[in-house]
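Entry:
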Amino acid sequence: MTQTEKPVKPALTDSELVILARSGDNSAFGQLIRRHQSAIFRFLSHQVRDQVEANDIAQETFVALFRSLDRYDTGRPFLAWAFVIARNKARDHHRRRAALRWVGIDDHLDQTASQLPDPEHETAERQELTQVGVLIQALPESLRTPLLLSAMEGLSHEEIGAAIGVSTKAVELRIYRARKALRTQLTQER
C-alpha cells in the first residue's frame, strides 16, 4: 500500500448502523435509509400502485423507523423489520382511503387509480403486465405481501416469515396460493 492509498474500511452492518443511530449519529440512520430506500419504495409501489402515494408512505415509514429504533432487535434483519413498518403504513393508507370513500370524499382517487393505459399505445406485453399488476393488487393482503416480498425483493421465506410474523411453511403456502390464484385468473381472462 502506498502512502496515498487509504485502507478500505469494511461497510458497517445494519445492526451496527442502528446502534450508532440510537446513540445520536444521524448520518448512520441516513446511511441505513439510503441502503434500503429503493427496496421499501418498490414494495410500497406494488402495495398502493401510485408512485406519489408510495413516496409519501415511504417517507412516513422512514419517520416511523427513526422513532422506533429503540424497539428494533439487532439480532434480526433490519430490512424485514422495515418491511413490517412499511406494510403497516400501507394498511393505514388503505384504511384512510376506505374511510374517505365511505363518506364520499375520495371518489375521484378511485377513478384515476383504476384507469388502464390506452391499448393503442401499449404493446401486448405491457397490457399483460398491467393485467398482472391489477390481479396482484386484487389478491388478499395476506397473499399479496409474501408474493411481493419474494418476487420483487428476493427475500427468503425465512425473512418473509420474520417480517410478517408467520412460519416459513405458512409463507410457502401463501406464495403458492397467490401464484395459483394468479394463474387461475389469467387463464380465465384469456
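Residues 102-122 have pLDDT under 50 and may be disordered.
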